[in-house]
Amino acid sequence: MKTLLLIPLLLVVLAGGACQTSCSPVSPPGTADAAGEQTAPDMGDHIWSVFQGKDSTYWFGSDGQGVYRYDGKALVRFTTEHGLTSDHIRGIQEDRSGNIFVCTEPGGVSRFDGHGFVALTPLDPSKGEWKLGPDDLWFPGGQDTGAVYRWDGASLHRLTFPATEAGDAHYAALPRWKYPNARYSPYDVYTIFKDSRGHLWFGTAVLGACRYDGSSFAWVGHGENANFGVRAFVEDADGKFWLSNAVNRYAEEPVPLATPGADGPPPGAARFRKEPGPATHADPYSAFMSAVRDKDGVLWIATLHEGVWRFDGRVWTHFPVLHDGKPVRVYSIQRDRRDRLWLGTQENGVYRLDGAAFARVKFE
Question: What is the DSSP string of 273-340?
Fold first, then answer.
């Protein structure tokens, strides 16, 4: 029997730290720092992602206002005027050398050069290469592309998935000529996850998840979550995978070597067995937008309408996320280098776990 512990929202301000619930100092709005960068008075409401670099600088990705950088002193905003391919940010990553990369919608990747951003030009598609390098960075390719990007440290590869029967069936059922407003590909990628073995998982809009191990593709959970798609992954303590929900989980079953002439999957191909997860469809934490583990390995999941839930493998604990007493639409949850948890939201800015509750972060 699962126990639900409800914790009310408390606005807690802690002393110390690089960026607290009220962050200061920030240069007056519209002023320029020594590098000529334009400071911002605060971030907008549509902050979907949070990332902290190796140098402790925070980056905040917005949906429509570009990306913000906070170095502990000033909040600086970067937009298409500073080299971004779009102001709709979909991901922020860092390479081994500390270079910051930003992925946007429509699809595109830009790299920070210390002052602004430089858009990366993909290789000719004929030269793109599916490969799994330990230091590669991977990015979604944007809506209606069915593509992903791989940065190998020198070149940007734009890659598409091999066609599948399920993908072909989707196109046949929804031909573009008949449904011109269905402007998406079933292979469109929401999220990319690297598992404990270094394999990549791509969460798609329609086709479930694709696992790429460097040499082959295995598709898992077609139809999982219906129109919600696969927006996040969890690899649990048993090495089994949750695809944006806690109702089901998938366990890999290696296929024995096939005998000549036998029907079935190719020799050595991976397949996955569906098992019950720790939730039911009636539970408020059954589907989630994003997930992360804290320093103790405890799982935290962010739901779109039901706040954040902590799961220690036995007990689910609820952390409501509210604005003026109403639930906030949470988009992502991330952990910084000080093991603090941050939330990106669709309409209410950035929240951070301070003590026993999530509170909105404001810059003053």
Answer: EEEE-S--TTSTTSB-SEEEE-TT--EEEE-SSS-EEEE-SS-EEEE--EETTEE--EEEEEE-TTS-
Query: Strand, helix or coil at 204?
Result: strand
- pLDDT tens, residue order, the chain (364 aa): 322 222 233 322 222 333 333 343 333 344 455 455 778 888 889 999 999 999 999 999 999 999 999 999 999 999 999 999 999 999 999 999 999 999 999 989 999 999 999 999 999 989 999 999 999 999 999 999 999 999 999 999 999 999 999 999 999 999 999 999 988 999 999 999 999 999 999 999 999 999 999 999 999 999 889 889 999 999 999 999 999 999 999 999 876 655 555 555 555 567 899 999 999 999 999 999 999 999 999 999 999 999 999 999 999 999 999 999 999 999 999 999 999 999 999 999 999 999 999 999 987 6
In this structure, are residues 189 and 148 in contact, taking their beta carbons and an 8 Å threshold? yes
pTM to 2 decimals? 0.87
* Closest to 145 measured CA to CA, from 177, 180, 184: 184
Cβ-contact 203, 189 below 8 angstroms:
yes
Greatest distance between any 2 Cα atoms in the chain:
74
